[in-house]
Design goal:
The protein is of the alpha/beta class. It folds into two domains: 157 residues, Vaccinia Virus protein VP39 (Rossmann fold, 3-Layer(aba) Sandwich), CATH 3.40.50.150; 171 residues, HUPs (Rossmann fold). It is built from 13 helices and twelve strands. A seven-stranded mixed β-sheet has the order 3-2-1-4-5-7-6. The chain has a five-stranded parallel β-sheet with strand order 10-9-8-11-12, with helices on both faces. The mean pLDDT is 90. The structure holds 4'-phosphopantetheine.
Length: 356
């Protein structure tokens, strides 16, 4: 690997350490062509920096300062070696840290960047990448750009296809500007023990208002739910499968932390009747005290769902009553089996149950 253009042009970089997948020279060249070749000062942030080749290429092409963030110790040593070889040590800092945590610190220190590279390992989940991405607007200078490199897989769509995406062989590169990153992510939390048509109505309406909705299925060790978190996630996934901007995850910790990690500024909850108000008000105030930057917003349940609750469904199903009005059709049989008699093999059941 070599630096392609600028003051360090032609310089050979150190061997790539094991486990690191660097951007190939060819992709790097096309990428910088698309970015406009050369720069006049400014700062670059190289997240998941690997060998540091992207940030170093930017330094070589006129960017003044660089921050490299990488948590793999051998990769950090390689970045330092590459900075030494190219003579850019004085203009760079190398931070050995997790990308999310480094971001928090850079934000606290009021740092801003004109160019941010993000080349995460392909195995990192899209939701995690989006979580980091949606927090970058705070450190992106006006007119700045974020460049994300991803594997070439169909499910790799980021931020609802905002930004400009180019394909270079097996690599997909998307360039975002600041307005692309101002994504409104909401978290819809609950025990979903089980998910009802009332919950689904709230999730569906939230998905129409926000760019992305993460349904947080509380592990809720205190409440001792009937089904495992994994089984409840599978049920929610099955009924939200038609909503392209909804993802479902287990939440095993504080809601505000979960929201912060996913770059969500809003917690959305359904409110059925005045009886819900006290406890929701209390939770919203607690969460506001814990994390003032996350707002709680409520969606009023449809009148026909105002009496509906998971606990009522559990009780009716337990006595063999008819819950078909309350549970989405696609999961009705699974729910009846799970909440009536013995503990079922739900994973197998969800997979084999026919749709509709
Ligand atoms: O459907 P539920 O049972 O009303 O959902 C409750 C849930 C999951 C929203 C709540 O238990 C929760 O927020 N759990 C995460 C732990 C937490 O953050 N607690 C402090 C805020 S009250």
């Amino acid at each position: 690997m070599r630096i392609i253009a600028g003051t360090a042009r032609g310089m050979r970089l150190a061997p790539v350490p094991p486990g690191v997948r660097p951007t190939s020279d060819r992709v790097r060249e096309s990428l910088f062509n698309a970015l406009g070749q050369f720069f006049d000062g400014g700062a670059v942030l190289d997240l998941y920096a690997g060998t540091g080749s992207l940030g170093i290429e930017a330094l070589s092409r006129g960017i003044e300062r660089a921050t490299f963030v990488e948590k793999n110790g051998r990769a950090v040593a390689t970045i330092r070696e590459n900075l030494r070889r190219t003579g850019f040590e004085e203009r760079a800092e190398v931070v050995r840290e997790d990308a999310g945590r480094a971001l928090e610190r850079l934000r606290e220190h009021g740092r801003t960047y004109n160019l941010i590279f993000m080349d995460p390992p392909y195995r990192i989940a899209t939701t995690e990448v989006e979580g980091v991405l949606s927090r970058l607007d705070a450190i992106l200078a006006p007119g700045g750009r974020v460049v994300v490199e991803r594997g070439d897989a169909p499910e790799e769509v980021l931020l609802s296809e905002k930004g400009v995406t180019r394909r270079y062989g097996g690599t997909v590169v998307t360039v975002f500007d600041r307005s692309d990153l101002m994504m409104n992510v909401a978290v819809c939390p609950g025990s979903f023990d089980p998910i009802t048509v009332g919950h689904l109505d709230v999730i569906r309406r939230a998905s129409g208002v926000f760019d992305h909705v993460v349904v947080a299925v509380g592990a809720n060790r205190v409440k001792n739910p009937r089904l495992s978190p994994g089984d409840r996630v599978r049920l929610v996934e099955k009924v939200t499968g038609d909503l392209g901007n909804v993802s479902v995850e287990v939440m095993d910790g504080l809601l505000v932390e979960f929201a912060r990690e996913r770059g969500a500024r809003v917690i959305v909850k359904g409110l059925r009747a005045v009886s819900d108000f006290n406890s929701e008000f209390e939770q919203a105030q607690l969460n506001q005290t814990l994390e003032p930057e996350v707002e709680t917003m409520f969606i009023m349940a449809a009148a026909k769902h105002s009496f509906l609750s998971s606990s009522a469904v559990r009780e009716i199903a337990n006595y063999g009553g008819d819950v078909s009005e309350f549970i989405p059709r696609e999961i009705l049989d699974s729910v009846v089996e799970a909440y009536s008699g013995t503990q079922p093999d739900l994973e197998r059941r969800i997979k084999t149950e026919s749709k509709g």
